[in-house]
Amino acid sequence: MSDVETTLRGPEAYKIAGRALSLMERHQVWPTALNFELWTHFVADPDGALARELTRLISLGEPLTESLSEELAATYLPKAKLNEQIRDAGDLLSKELESVSKAIQDAQKSNTAYGRTLNGAAKELDASQDVDKIKTVVSGLAEATRRVQKENKSLETRLAESTAEVDRLREHLEQVRRDATTDGLTNLANRKAFDEELDRACSEADEAGATLCLAVLDIDHFKGFNDTWGHQTGDQVIRYVASVIGRVAAPPRFAARYGGEEFAMIFPRESAALVAGTLEEIRVEVSSRMLKRRSTNEDLGAITISSGFAERRPGESGHSVMERADAALYTSKRGGRNRVTAAETKPDSANAA
């Protein structure tokens, strides 16, 4: 999830939406779903590429038409860019397969014609004892054979080229898929990928009768840190915590940036004791390092994280176990932060401030 999308899911979102609607009205832009998404991104990230481009177009007096909105979305909105990439790759793949299909059809026609030539030659040889005529038939057969061999060679080359191209397109689509499920700031999985993996892991645990633990981790006092040092330094801290989490998240474990400064981890087939130990390892490593601001080398001090985890009950939904892990996280927050808490059987649903 991008920082803009995280902002649009926070308390500032309503103010941003109101300002976006005001700007749309001022510039006589219809409040369609696409335009609203563009302008909320404009307000939420005024220094971003989309905002700069919209500002440039407005300064030039360009009419903000629906077609222009679609072009801006395809260029600057993550989901629209992804759809465009998938569509382009799909079009190329369709063209490649169509070309191969035509080459195969041409080869089939050539082989059919060659078969007719062989049949005709056989009949002529059976009916004739004339040496010159036999030589003519054999010569024709040789020519037809050379022609079909050449066409078959051409087909083999075309199929080899096509195989390479399809492999390239498959690799491109896989990269697009990875981009769609990867958080751009941390290179961990994003929330969409996490939700899908949690559903899959729950189903697998039910089928195998296996254990599954889910953990939620959150950087303590991050808003104050961000307000003091700025978003770029805040991003540096998020990347650092993500790197610590990533080092202990080798498969079958699964780690994701769940949103903002919050992370989530799935621990298939691991006991609560082992999960608690791993989360404690992460907590200690994060808090043990004194951070410096990259741009000025100023001391930022140490940061801490709080976490909560829940062991999934048989048949329990991913949403339910997530709620229990969240409740355990809030218990860590209420208890003074910088700690690991296991979910209770009947968790307290109250939230920490």
TrEMBL record:
**Location of the region described as Disordered in the Swiss-Prot/TrEMBL record:** 332-353
Task: Report which residue ranges the record marks as coiled coil.
Answer: 145-179
Give the catalysed reaction(s), semicolon-separated: 2 GTP = 3',3'-c-di-GMP + 2 diphosphate
Regions that span the bilayer? none
Q: Which InterPro entries match?
A: Diguanylate_Cyclase, GGDEF_dom, Nucleotide_cyclase, Rev_trsase/Diguanyl_cyclase
Q: Which domain of life is it from?
A: Bacteria
The UniProt entry, under PANTHER family, shows: DIGUANYLATE CYCLASE DGCM-RELATED (PTHR45138:SF9), REGULATORY COMPONENTS OF SENSORY TRANSDUCTION SYSTEM (PTHR45138)
Q: What is this protein called?
A: diguanylate cyclase
